[in-house]
Amino acid sequence: MTTRRILLGTSLAAPFIATTGALAQGQWPNRPVRVIVPWPPGGSTDVLCRLLCEQLQQKTGQSFVLENRPGAGGNIGADALAKSAPDGYSMAPLTLGAWHINSFLYSRLPYDPQRDFQPISMHWELPNVLVVSAQHNPANNFREFLAWARAQRQGISYGSPGVGTTAHLSGALFTTRLQIEGTHVPFRGAAQIIPAMLSGDLNCALDNLASYVPVIQEGRAKAFAVTGAERWPTLPDVPTMAEVGVPDFVITSWCAMAFPAGVPAPIVERASALIREVTEPPAMQERFLRAGAKGVFSTPAEVTARVARERPVWQEVVRISGARLD
């Protein structure tokens, strides 16, 4: 596995031994923070995490060092966070897989999502988007795509960043409900899915919108529907699933920043407040939208409540899809 480290700003400071005073709310961070990204460079989580960390660095004057630890549906990076020292200097953007979906895909996980993570704040939320190659697919709208897909004797292929991701589960539900013969093709991330789709090696994707906005706007990919309840602000001509005749298909992906469990409460509160401060301004909201997501923020308790609320919903989606990773 290749690990890529991206240093945002100044070089790493000398090792620091935390003292009682260093735990005070107003003093975090006073040295560089390691940010473990459980997905590859170029994907939605990586792009949006970098955007947030650039702002946190400007706000605090400290470096936020991105360390990509992809693999196993986000489990490798999530496990690395769970096993990090609870000193407030390791954090990670955790998506739905780490918070609850992977619990239903694997008989055993190397971490306990209900015990090993300390939520900080929500980070982003976005729908999935149904996309095809503009060069290799004849359809120009959803109805034409559906007719084309059903006419393929060998079925169609759809890509995702891995088994059990929202892209995979969305694709499985979509092909099942619309009676399309579909073959799931897992990749390591959108950075690999997009070239395969644009070259015609892959028929389509129903993946997180953030990574696909550039190729859609450039005209290299055609977008037929988004899975949000409303049209996406930067793609106003792309209808929702409900508008193209697929009801009850509202699926959004989201991410929340987290520390390992055991980080002192003042540091958690300080980090949560900082994320709100850098995310809330309209200019930053616009930057998130241009990157393909809505920038969101919350209290740690609100993250915990959302995880508990959505857990049984995704358990049922996983059951319907038949996905398992043991």
Automatic annotation (TrEMBL):
Listed SUPFAM superfamilies: Periplasmic binding protein-like II
Gene3D superfamilies attached to this UniProt entry: Bordetella uptake gene, domain 1, Periplasmic binding protein-like II
NAD as UniProt keyword: no
The keyword Signal is annotated on this UniProt entry: yes
Pfam families, per database record: TctC (PF03401)
Keywords in alphabetical order: Receptor, Signal
Signal peptide: 1-24
UniProt-listed CDD domains: PBP2_Bug27
Family classification: Belongs to the UPF0065 (bug) family.
Protein's name in the database: Tripartite-type tricarboxylate transporter, receptor component TctC
